[in-house]
Amino acid sequence: MDDLVIQGPGATEKESKIIAQLAGTATITPLGETAYRLHAIQTPDAALVYCAQLAVDAAVVPSKQRLSDFGLVAMDMDSTLITIECIDEIADMAGIKPQVAQITESAMRGEIDFSASLRRRVALLKGLGVDALQRVYEERLQLSPGAETLLAGCKALGIKTLLVSGGFTFFVERLQHRLALDYARSNVLEIENGKLTGDIVGEVFGAESKAQALRETRDALKLRPDQTIVLGDGANDLPMMAEAGISIAYRAKPTVKAKAKYALDHSGLDGVLNLFLWRS
């Protein structure tokens, strides 16, 4: 039997009752101010269409799907764990954000190869002082809504967390320390005399590297693929999402949403928790 989880600003108490009627159930459990679980649904299609019109996130989930059945949550950084694309904001410090952002957007849609696009973007930053990175971290980097609630929920159940990013260790390492994330992998910007050289140290940590990092971490924890959850937003997240038992597209590009098991477009990251039974 399946349940329907609805959430987002449009998921009011009044609307939840309408959606429940469309879904063929009268049993509703509030999960928060704008989140509800509709139990033992019979007719999900009409409800899903209505939710789309309301701009409400809706997910058909197994009624007994428990968060405690999972051992690892892996997530992308830029535009997933945090609200910005760090490289675009670094570029803004150099006055070239439009040029870099255009390449970023194309790469995230999967139109151009991620590794090649990253090298092109980083090359444009040559000569920029490393202090610009610190300014981005202090002045512009913000966690996505609900990020800390999601991580606290994982920690409470002993679920390990992995941050995998096609971005840079400068930000990833700071976030790992700040949020007590268990594992983290990303790219290293080459720096000489306090300035970016326009290059990356070693191979680009891209789409396949993310998938490999997930496999390595999963295997080290002795977990099965179906015991992993992955969150991402861009095309370079698709290989690692394909490795997961549960893939979640967070405010993602259409190509990513089309291949993910669940999608959150209107909820925060704490909406991930509502897809599972997790409260004691």
In a nutshell, what does this entry contain?
This protein has 280 residues and is of the alpha/beta class. The protein is built from 13 helices and 12 strands. The relative contact order is 0.16.
So how many helices? 13
Order of helices and strands: EHEEHEEHHHHHHEHEEEHEHEHEH
Helix content: 40-55%
Distance between the termini: 21 Å
Largest sheet properties: 6 strands, parallel
State the secondary-structure class: alpha/beta
Describe this protein's structure:
By secondary structure, the protein is of the alpha/beta class. The chain contains 13 helices and twelve strands. It has a six-stranded parallel sheet with strand order 7-6-5-10-11-12, with helices on both faces. The chain is elongated and about 65 Å long.
Secondary structure blueprint with pairings:
Layout: E1 2-7, H1 13-23, E2 28-32, E3 35-38, H2 44-54, E4 57-62, E5 72-75, H3 77-81, H4 86-93, H5 97-108, H6 114-123, H7 131-139, H8 147-156, E6 160-168, H9 169-179, E7 183-187, E8 189-192, E9 195-200, H10 207-220, E10 228-232, H11 238-242, E11 246-250, H12 254-259, E12 262-264, H13 271-274
Helix pairs in contact: 1-2, 4-5, 4-7, 5-6
Question: What would the keywords be for this entry?
Answer:
280 residues; alpha/beta; six-stranded parallel sheet; four-stranded antiparallel sheet; 41% helix
